[in-house]
Amino acid sequence: MYRLKNQLNYYIVATQKITMAYRIFINTNKVTIYWLYRRLIMVII
User: Fold this and answer.
1) Distances (CA, A) of 28 to 5, 17, 23, 43, 45
2) Which residues are CB-contacts of 35 (< 8 A; sequence separation ≥ 6)?
3) Residues 2-16 pLDDT 10s
4) Helix and strand counts by DSSP (H, E) for the chain
5) Whole-angstrom Cα distance, residue 25 to residue 8?
6) 10, 14, 30 from 4: Cα distances, Å
7) Which of 11-39 are b and which e, b meaning 16 or more Cβ less than 10 Å from the residue's Cβ?
8) pLDDT-based confidence at residue 43 (cuts at 50, 70, 90)
9) How many Å apart are CA 16 and CA 22, to the nearest integer?
10) How far is CA 40 from CA 26, 29, 33, 43, in A?
């Protein structure tokens, strides 16, 4: 029983870490896309 609980805890922590990394990845991508978009507009205008 203890082992199962321990494993469950491990999975919860891993999921949280993955979610956090994913959020950071999405945020940096938003900034990059925005920056590229701005550069594109500057080139066109």
Assistant:
1) 35, 17, 9, 23, 26
2) none
3) 788 889 999 999 999
4) 1, 0
5) 26
6) 10, 15, 39
7) eeeeeeeeeeeeeeeeeeeeeeeeeeeee
8) confident
9) 10
10) 21, 16, 10, 5
Q: How many CB atoms lie within 10 A of CB 2?
A: 6
18: which 2 tokens?
């993955």
C-alpha 34/C-alpha 43 separation (Å) is 14
Determine the pLDDT at residue 44.
Answer: 80
Q: Give the tokens for residue 37.
A: 């978009």
